[in-house]
Fold this protein.
Amino acid sequence: MSSQLTKQCLQFDERPPTPDHVKKFRRSTYLEPGRRFMHHGVVDDVESLNLGNKIFGVADNKFRDGAADLIRPSPLSEMARLNIVKSEKNYKRSQREPLGHSPERNTQLPAKYTQGNQPFGVKSKSVEEPAKNLIFPVDVDHDTEEGNDIYKRSHGSYAPGEQKRRGYDWSIDPERTVFGRKGDSIAFNGVSKNIAEVLKGPSNPKEEAPVVNLKKVEDFRNMGDMLGRTKNLGQDSGVRPPDMIYGKPSGNKAVSAIDVIRGRYSGADLEPDRDLGKSIMPGFRNISTQDRVFGCPSIRSDIPHAPPQRRSLADCQNYGDDVPAQELINPPAFSDLSIGPLAMAELRPKEKLLDIFRRIGFKVSPDVAEEIFYTASEGREVASINAYRETLNRYLIENDLVDARDRK
């Protein structure tokens, strides 16, 4: 095998065909387009019995109805339609659910429903007493006492200043009984002295006169939010002293929450550690009388390294020649063409350098090209693209100035 060529290894011999006595059992034999599929039991009898030219089945009768006659039958006569309806009545489904009308139940109704106009059902009381008459009575006199009582119960229509009565059976006369508690002292004409001071002001002019306000306003003020105080939730919190402490004291009074947050440290514990910024282990103190820098630098420019274009991708060490962040923010020219800045400073021979500038459209005479290359290379055999470009630009600018001076 070692002596054979690759071409000979890829050239395979033709596979042997399937034998005829085995081919009839394989399904792949009849996969060709347009070929008739045959059972393997009749493959050997095709030629002897002439099965290829035979048509199987029974010939159709020419006088039978076709598909068009079955899809579009001729219209039925009235007698044929009645015969179909009569034959359909034998089925129970046609009696329960007739097509196009409600079922006929053959129920015999009284003559008052069939001949007269009497409706079905029983009349309700709403027919005799409409709801509108109950809400807006029409036969009630508003000036009578009975009519006023009806409107008081239905609409709460009380007269101005009228006392609301609920029909309670009191043991007192509500018209003559005065409710409330008697004041500290009774002034003249049965007026409480305390109420008189509230309405007229205190007798002492140095005292501040009280202000009478609505109860709703005072309740809203007492139950609302107050600056610097807890909200009154109707649990006598407004009358409690402001320095009251809520909750149950804990059994452990050794360490409080403020001690846990701030800690209990002495003055010595708050001092900085002895090894802060220096080593206290004998023999390991970083003290030197010489101008010496300890440690390994992160940028290893002190060790030999390969150029960037020949450096391995697995080498992650920074040798001081990596691309700075400035070139990432402001990329140099030709970076979108994958041309690095070092490619312009690479030294190239004269033939290759002149071919590059000739391809981009700077065609000059051979004598001028030789002179430009000699100036850019400083007499050497190689020069960079940057040096040749600067020399060429100076030459073109000088020629433009000379041409402009000649035209003048």
